[in-house]
Design goal:
- There is one protein chain.
- This protein has 16 helices and eleven strands.
- By secondary structure, the protein is of the alpha+beta class.
- Helix 14 packs antiparallel against helix 15.
- The N terminus and C terminus are likely disordered.
Length: about 450
């Protein structure tokens, strides 16, 4: 057998051919960098929008950029949490550097008597108004406005927001001013104690008479503090009210009294929400109980409009332990405040927080992925109906919560009259925020993911 040779033509550089190899793109480092750029650019853009107060949602970005949807859903919630942590660390640094003393003893027509508290954005003084002699509270932004102009804006927003809320269970703001380079506003002085103090004392003793607790706190105040006894000159009926309050005692099983506390707080939230305002930091320390048993919601420093179109730069700020999980992901509505009130009531009923974490990372993980024990698993004497109300408030899935304060108030009133309340938990999901929406989800849940 003979073999024949195959001779291929030899092409020279000068010869042209229409033959073209397709499907094998050349590789270069520049192209690889360009291929990685889009998601990095989107992440940078996402963080910049968060810092500018636009509050984009993860699902919004996933829909807008479907090619990167999986990566966006997996990584962008982490970016939100990191940004929130940065903002809170910045705020904490400011608080640590609050001045001990101020270069003034009066603001406007208010003579400052003594400091009575420090919060996230201000120092509160007890003061006496010149002329009327009325005792008021004055909240001061503790830095000159020239140093923290962005905080001045937030402080003024708090004053304006609270001033328009007129309700018997919300501490009212009377006026706003600026003097000596400092911003301040004047509000009603509430001679009371926070629920955080009540909870702490109930852990220590079998019963708390809150009038006695108020007096005990007064005794530890510095010179110049005007106590409940001196307030009688301003409020002639307070003597009778104080005597009645002395007979009022809270014990770890004061379920009716705890229900009344929750009713008053829900009424205040209903009013605020009807006015288009979210409190955004409901917790035991921001609910005061006065010597007549009235609840006062205070500190609207982190409040914002319920209208998502308005500027809400500090939307994700607040106290993690009581913060609704969806707020960590940039979503919010009235049920976020309901969740926080439920967590507060949970702590009042069980005398322990729903989540106990050693650090911020653990707390974030618990809020997003963990369901706390049912209250009756901790304290068997809690009435079933009251436990149901709490669970309806603190469901991780917003669709399983009371849709508004009105619905919560209706169930609290039912329970107070001995009527049955029903669970809103129609389905269980495990971790709502650790997965993507599915076609098998209920329409209401899909609506939540589409927000």
């Amino acid at each position: 057998m003979s073999t024949s040779s195959i001779h291929l033509p030899v092409m020279t550089d000068s010869e042209e051919t229409d033959f073209e190899i397709q499907g094998f793109p050349e590789h270069s480092e520049d192209q690889e960098l360009r291929a990685r750029q889009p998601i990095e650019i989107l992440a940078t853009q996402f963080v910049e929008e968060l810092r500018n107060g636009l509050q984009p949602t993860v699902e919004e970005y996933a829909r807008r950029y479907p090619l990167h949807a999986d990566v966006i859903r997996e990584s962008f919630p982490v970016l939100q949490i990191l940004e929130q942590s940065r903002v809170q660390s910045e705020a904490a640094a400011f608080r640590k550097n609050m001045p001990e003393k101020f270069p003034f003893s009066r603001l406007g027509r208010c003579e400052l008597l003594c400091e009575i508290g420090r919060g996230g954005m201000g120092v509160v003084f007890q003061a006496r108004e010149t002329g009327s002699g009325h005792i008021v509270a004055v909240k001061v932004l503790p830095w000159r406005v020239s140093i923290v102009p962005e905080w001045q804006k937030r402080f003024e927003e708090e004053a304006r927001t609270t001033a328009r809320l007129r309700h018997r269970n919300i501490v009212p703001v009377f006026r706003f001013g600026q003097e000596h380079g400092y911003c301040y506003f004047v509000m009603q002085f509430v001679n009371g104690i926070g629920l955080d103090v009540i909870i702490r004392r109930l852990k220590e003793v079998d019963g708390v008479i809150y009038q006695h607790e108020i007096e005990r706190m007064e005794s530890s105040k510095p010179d110049g503090f005007v106590g409940s006894g001196e307030m009688e000159a301003i409020s002639p009926s307070s003597a009778l009210a104080s005597e009645e309050a002395r007979r009022k005692k809270l014990t770890p099983t004061s379920w009716k009294s705890f229900t009344q506390i929750a009713i008053q707080a829900a009424q205040a939230l209903r009013h605020a929400h009807n006015e288009g305002v979210l409190h955004n930091d409901i917790k035991p320390g921001n609910l005061l109980l006065d010597n007549e048993g009235r609840v006062w919601i205070t500190d609207f420093g982190l409040s914002h409009s319920m209208d998502p179109q308005e500027d809400t730069t500090h939307r994700v700020m607040g106290t993690l332990r009581y913060m609704a999980p969806e707020r960590l992901l940039g979503s919010f509505d009235g049920s976020s405040d309901i969740y926080s009130l439920g967590m507060t009531l949970y702590e009042l009923l069980t005398l322990q927080p729903a989540f106990a974490a050693k650090n911020e990372d653990d707390m974030v993980s618990q809020v997003l992925d963990t369901t706390p024990p049912n209250p009756r698993q901790i304290e068997k004497r809690i009435p079933k109906g009251l436990e149901t109300i709490v669970l309806n408030c603190i469901a991780q899935n917003p669709m399983e919560r009371y849709p508004n304060a009105e619905a919560l108030l209706a169930d609290l009133l039912k329970f107070s009259k001995g009527q049955r309340v029903a669970s809103l938990r129609k389905f269980r999901l495990g971790s709502l925020f650790g997965r993507k929406p599915s076609s098998s989800d209920s329409p209401r849940l899909r609506d939540y993911f589409d927000q």
